[in-house]
Amino acid sequence: MDHHVKDLSLAEGGELRIQWAEREMPVLRRVRERFCKDRPLEGTKVGACLHVTTETANLMLALRDGGAQVALCASNPLSTQDDVAAALVVKHGIPVFAVKGEDKHTYYNHIASVIANGPEVTLDDGADLISTLHFLAQDREGELSHSLSQVFERWSGEERKALVGRIVGSTEETTTGVIRLKSLADQKKLLFPVVAVNDADTKHLFDNRYGTGQSTIDGILRATNRLIAGSMFVVCGYGWCGRGVAMRARGMGARVFVTEVDSIKALEAVMDGFMVMPLAEAARRGDFFVTVTGDVAVIRKEHFEVMKDGAMVANSGHFNVEIDLEALEAMSLSKQRMRPFVDEYTLKDGRRIVVLGEGRLVNLVAAEGHPSAVMDMSFADQALAVEYLVREGKDLEPKVYKLPRPLDEEVAKIKLESMGISIDNLTPQQERYLSSWEMGT
Length: 441
Ligand code: NAI
Description:
The protein is of the alpha/beta class. The chain is 47% helix and 15% strand. The chain folds into 2 domains: 8-203 and 369-418, Adenosylhomocysteinase-like (Rossmann fold, 3-Layer(aba) Sandwich), CATH 3.40.50.1480; 211-365, Rossmann fold (3-Layer(aba) Sandwich). Helix 1 (11-22) packs across helix 4. The protein is globular. The mean pLDDT is 96.
């Protein structure tokens, strides 16, 4: 079996951690048990480009038990858990192409290896696999980056067309990926249907908020071992992830500042009790900074220029573009790695700015990503989305779809059940009342 992981001898430890995560994933377990029985994915080739974590491993096992032949690569060069990658290969015979710390060239080579497996359904977290497939479908070799042209050159034009032509549909896990895919769809360039798993309520309401909230703080703590209580903590972006990070930082005793570009979100942050101000102002005050905007160059030169000595900056947005590290490099006399994932830049005026996780998703780079209990819902959504695409993909148009509402609700119901929580049902009278306009007049 073709694969590329760091060290197969890490498999034992990885397997134990996969089992540990599984205990907290009752919804995915329920889906997996049904998949085992009904085999709805029998013979389907699935290619996944996801963070290679213990939870992803459990998703891969569920898809395999549904009858799929899966291959997996990383969706970020620094988020791979090498022991998990080894366990999937050794213990479960799943081809994995992922090594923590891989360079960009290797990253795209790994995506190419998953494409070479001939997937019919793909799963993405950030849309790098789908974008690569779209680049392959175009004859624009001259315009490709070096990393992408090596992928392009692997196959002849006919082979590339055949590989892309196999795809029945794809799923996308995160906000940034969905934004990229909606842009492709708006330009009428999307080649196959995509289910935006991120847009399911049982995904972004929980994963982005509670998952990113907890794991971002976890990443900062593991990297720095600093005290959050009493600190000035700046959160850039008050979307689903930002709400979670701000809430958890406050819970640990920080004084939290929020920066926004959207007036409604800014107002929400004010009414939630946070201090809201432009970043130029917050930059002077913060001890910790976290970007979660999905935007580019949010923290830049003018902000580094006024930061306090020792200020720490981290990113939990999908791409490593939210902190302008090039500007910081240019302003710095030296850079020193103080601890794993902690780089201290010394500026010309002697101030030090500390960058965590090289500006990449700090929760996955310096910690282990979201807790399993929250990924349980996101990955149950993913598994149900794959099943939906296998069943209905051929009849769907090349558009971005939401996960069908009944599937979203099914996930919430099973999660509640697994927590031992039951809720009320509408009485017939209430049903009538809520669906009529005559009452109350
Ligand atoms: P969202 O769209 O709900 O929120 C983003 C917010 O950032 C919006 O309110 C927007 O107005 C604001 N924003 C945009 N530009 C800004 C700027 N220059 N300054 C201040 N605020 C700005 O998106 P969501 O779901 O919160 O995701 C944010 C990012 O986090 C995305 O890149 C997403 O893919 C990623 N993500 C990361 C996860 C992780 O594990 N670290 C998990 C889930 C999502």
